[in-house]
Amino acid sequence: MPVPDFILTMREKLGTDLIWMPGVSAVVLDDDGRVLLGQRADNGQWGLITGILDPGEEPAVGAVREVAEETGVVARVEHLASISAGRPVTFPNGDRAQFLDLTFRCRYVAGEARVADDESLAVGWYAVDDLPDSVPPHQRWRLQTALTATGVPVFARD
Question: What does pTM read for this prediction?
Answer without folding.
Answer: 0.94
